[in-house]
Amino acid sequence: MDTKIMSFRAPHLILAGLDSLERLGEEAKAFEAKKALLVTDKGVIESGVAEKVQTLLKKEDITIDVFDKVVSDPDIGCAEACIEMAKKGKYGLILGVGGGSSMDVASVASVMCTNPGTVHDYLGVNLVKNPGIPTILMPTTAGTGAEATPNAILTDVEAKLKKAVVSPYILPRVAIVDPLLSVSMPPGVTSSSGIDALTHAIESYTSNNATILTDLFAKEAIILIGRSLRTAVANGNDLQARYDMSIGSLYAGIALANAGVTAVHALAYPLGGQFNVAHGIANGLLLPYVMEFNILGRIPKFAQIAQFLGEKVGHLSLLEQAYHAANAVKAIYKDLKIPQSLTELKVPREAIPEMAKAAMDVTRLMGNNPREMTVEDVQRIYENAL
Ligand SMILES: [Fe+2]
Cα separation of 149 and 133, whole Å? Predict the structure, then answer.
């Protein structure tokens, strides 16, 4: 029996479904802003999505400036450039359009317009005192779930680590999840972002902070992503697959916002910070190895995950079923042809001790892990992934 008190946060409003972007003008108008800042990246500009967003706002007589310098896995400097523009422009609304990077930079810019000091002052949990400028976040990928999470992730280049501004004020006022925005995403981005979403769902489902409420979202996310990730990568025009991935990613984001992710993300952070491995790729590589370690900590839930991923395991013992969950994830990766070893990513064995120490320092996530991990355990997991 779950004895935890359930605590649940989500965006004030979620609009999700085909053509939900069409509601943007109406929602933006409700904030009575005259000027808005669109935070995005060059890819979103090239895809024409940014132009569509601008047209919808212009119809409501809202003038819009564009910050299009967001890079993937943005560092603090990237966020600072956006904050400077946001402060100067005195905007009434900030829009984040793109992957997690654009949405996170938009959210950080929003709170930095209403709080003193620099971003460095807010890297941590619940350090933001004042709500930011209203934000509307619109994902064009299906992966980070950043439209539904209170975490904005930035790379601290000097510390070679990913750090996060974690605050309820990072959650947007409105999240618009239109699967049509993800159709132009190339296969490589579809697979790496989709794997990130699958990681969020599995980690949230098995987190120490999971509740029966977060399990609703995590379970559905595993089912949706498990059945559609391969197709979304192989045939990007398959709308049902894109729909499943967008909604699955949103659900996974909601689950992670309330249950938290666990050791996979903690072990992935040093790969991003020290070796510039993309977030989804780092998670994807480590997920099955961490699952294999974690299974003994939460056998029934891992057995359920195997079933959610479509494994026919009813005739097996609970423990055997649980191990099938890790195998099912490995099978997905094989089909997606993503890097399957640290060696492929040019991460040398000698780097493992330092990475293990850095991962152990991410106590915010390690504390959620369903099986206690020592620094030696972390080293062994990295070695298994070599
Ligand atoms: Fe993630």
Answer: 17
